[in-house]
Amino acid sequence: MPDTLRHISLANGLHLTLRHAPRLKRAAAALRVQAGSHDAPAQWPGLAHFLEHLFFLGTERFPLADGLMRHVQALGGQVNASTQARTTDFFFEVPPAALASGLERLCQMLAEPDLGLERQQPEREVIHAEFIAWSRNPEAQRQFALLQSVAPGHPLGAFHAGNRYSLPLRDAAFQCALKRFHQRFYQGSQITLSLAGPQSLEALEALGRRFGAMFKTAAPVDRPPPPWLLDGPLRSPSTNDLLFAHEALPEQAQNALELLLDLLTDSRPGGWLGELRQRGWLQSCKAQRLYGHAGQLLWHVRLQLNSDANAEQARTLLHSWLSFIRQQDGQRLNTAFAQLQQRREQAASALDLAQRDSAGQPYSALDSQGLAALTALLADLPEGPAGHWQLPANEPLLATALPARRAPLPAGLAVSQALPASRQFATLYLRWHMPSAAGVPPFVEHALQPLRERAERATLQLDLEASGAYWQLLLAGHPFAVVNAVEEALSLISTPPHAPGQAPSTSEPAPMPIRALLKALPDILQPAAAQTHPALSAPGSHWQHARWQGLAVGFEPTTLEALGAALQAIPGQPGEPPARPTFSGRHWHQVHTPGSEAALLLFCPLPETQQASGRLLAHLLQGPVYQRLRVELQLGYAVFSAFRQVAGFAGLLFGVQSPKASQGEILGHLIQLLQEGVNNVPASRQQLAEQFSEAAMTNAEVAHWAWQAHMATQNPRLSHMQRSILTVEQEDLDALLQQFLTAEHGWLCLANAAAPDDQWH
C-alpha cells in the first residue's frame, strides 16, 4: 500500500507534514527551523549551534533525566539534532505508541527552553571539545577548505562551529543575542514539523496540531538574501575536487540536483564514471551538495584517480557528458529517477521519511517545477565536446520479478523465520572460516567495487568484511535485489577478474580514534589462525580449505528457491566453524589510531545464561554513563554505553574519546560507576522487554539478532529474551556487577595507549 501524505498550516504559521505508511514499525518526528549558523550574529560564531545544544539540557517540566534524549534512548529509539547553514533540524524515532510523549518533549524544549547561565558553562566546554576534534580531523578541514572557494564575503567561508572563545557567556550582549535568536526564529512561521508512522493521518494530525500549537505566533522572518557566491572563478583546492556554483536557480533546484547526482555517480558503462573505469583511472567518486539556499547551489565532486590518470582529461570528459545529459529528454530521465526513488521510499525508515519531508525533498520523481529547475541547472553547467555517451540500461537490482531458475538451498544455509516475508526486507549472511587468508585481498575489493556502487544506488546493503580468520558477506534489502546480486557477488569474490598487481590503492579518510577501536574489536574477539599467509599465490587459492555457514532471513518460499539457484556456485565447503575462544580476567589491547585524543573501548562478554541480566544492566547504565562522563565530568562528546552483539559474542560495551582525560582516568570513572550500582529495576525491566519483539525492532535489527544467535548457537526467539528479561531481579544485577568488577567473564579493553599498570595481560 503506498504512503499517503497531507500538508496542513496551523494558525500559528507552523507547516505540518503528515505521512501515513502502514508498513512502518516505528514513528518519527522531524522538526526543521528555518534558521541556522548563517543567521546568527557574525560577532558570535557558533551561537546557533550552541543554542541547539542547550535545548537538550532539560527544562522545568522535563528535566534532563526525563528529557527527550533520555526518554527516546530508554525506548530503544534514536534522537539527534543538526545545525546547518540556514536550517536547524531536530529529529527522533520511537515505537508508535511513544510518538506523543516524544513530540511533547521536543516541542516543549524548543518552545520554552531553560537558558539559565549556570547550565551554559558545561555545554560550552562540550562545544569546545567538538571544535578541537573538528580542527584535528583532516576530512573536516578538507571540507572547510572547499568552502573557502567561494567569494570572501559569503558566510560559507566563515567559522560557525563555535568554541570557548567565540561564546562569551558573561557578556550581557551575547546573552541578549542568544535569547533574541530563540525568540525570533523558534516560532510557528519558521517551523516545519513532519510526522511519519503507521498511524492514520487523522491520528498524526491530532498530535501535530496539539503539540505544534505550543509555538508562539509571529510573522515570518524576512531574511536578507545572501551575498553572491562568486566574485570570479571558483578556487578549487585540488584537481581532484570539482566544484560547481549556481546563482538565481528556480525553486526545486535541490531536488533537480539530486537527480543529476544520481546520474553522475552511476558508474555503469555509458556514463562518465563508466568511462573513467574503462580507462583504468577510477578509484572512487563522491558527489554531494555542500550548500543550497535562496536559489544558490554549491556542489562538489571528489574524485580519487590512479596515479597514471589524466585529471584534466577526466574533467573534459565530465563536461562532455554534461552536454550529453543536457540534450536528453527530461521526462525520460525523470522516469528512471522515479524508479530509484520508489525503491528508496520502500526501504526508508520512519526517520528517513520524516527528515526528507521536513526538508521538502520526499522520495519522489520531479514535479513540473522540478523539471524546470533541472533544465535551468543543466543550462548553467559547463559544456564540452561531443562524446560516445549513452544512458545506462535498466538496473537488474531494481527488477520487480525474480530470475526464472530454481534450485534447492545448499546444505550449509539455514533459514530463519524471525522476520515475516511480508516485510519485503530480506537478509543473507554468508561467513567463511579462512585459515589461509589474512584479510580481504585488495584485488577482491577492487573487483567487487562496481557491484557495491550499484547496490548502494538501489538501497541494497552489500558488505564484505574480514575479521580474524573469517570473511563475512552481507546482503540486505528488497528480497529480489538480494537474489539478483548474490550470484554476481559470489563470482567476483571467488574468481576476481583482476590479478593482485592490477588493483589500485585506495585512500580512506582516517577514522576518529574511537571508531578505529570499534573496527578493531571483532579481530580481537576472534583472532586469525596462527599460520596465515601475508601474500596469496593466486586469486582464489584461499578457498581450498574454506568452510562456510550462512543464514537467510525474511524470504518467502518461492524467493528461497530462486536464492538456491543463485547460491549453486558458492565457494568453499559447508561446515561448522571452530570453537570460539572464551575469556576471563582483564586483557588490554593497544591499538594505534590516528589523532591525539585518548580513546578507550571496554567490552565485557557474557555467557548466554546472563544476557538478559546484562541487557537490563546496560539499559539502566546508559543514562548514568552519559550524565557522569559527558555532562558532569565533560570528558568529551564521544561517550556511549550499550549492550552489543559482535561477531557472535554478546556483552556490555563502553566507549569514550576524550581530549583531556587519559585512558586510565576514563577507565577509573567507568569502574566507579559500576561500583555505585543501579536501581529502578521493575519499570526499566518492562520498558526493555517491550523492545524485544519483531514488531518493535527494525527489520535490520531482527535480522542481526537472528544471525548473532545463529553464530552463538543460542535460542533465536525474541520471545525467549522477553521472558528472560522480565524475570531479572535486583539481586541478579547486583551479582552481575560484582562479576564485572572481578572480570569473571573477561574484560577486553582496547585503547590507543599502553596499559596504565601491570594488572593487565
UniProtKB/TrEMBL annotation:
GO terms for biological process: proteolysis; pyrroloquinoline quinone biosynthetic process. Residues 569-589 are annotated as: Disordered. The gene is pqqF. Residues 426-552 form the Coenzyme PQQ synthesis protein F C-terminal lobe domain. It comes from the Bacteria. The keyword Metal-binding applies. Required for coenzyme pyrroloquinoline quinone (PQQ) biosynthesis. It is thought that this protein is a protease that cleaves peptides bond in a small peptide (gene pqqA), providing the glutamate and tyrosine residues which are necessary for the synthesis of PQQ. This is Coenzyme PQQ synthesis protein F. The lineage of its organism: Bacteria, Pseudomonadati, Pseudomonadota, Gammaproteobacteria, Pseudomonadales. Residues 19-149 form the Peptidase M16 N-terminal domain. Keywords: Hydrolase, Metal-binding, Metalloprotease, PQQ biosynthesis, Protease, Zinc.
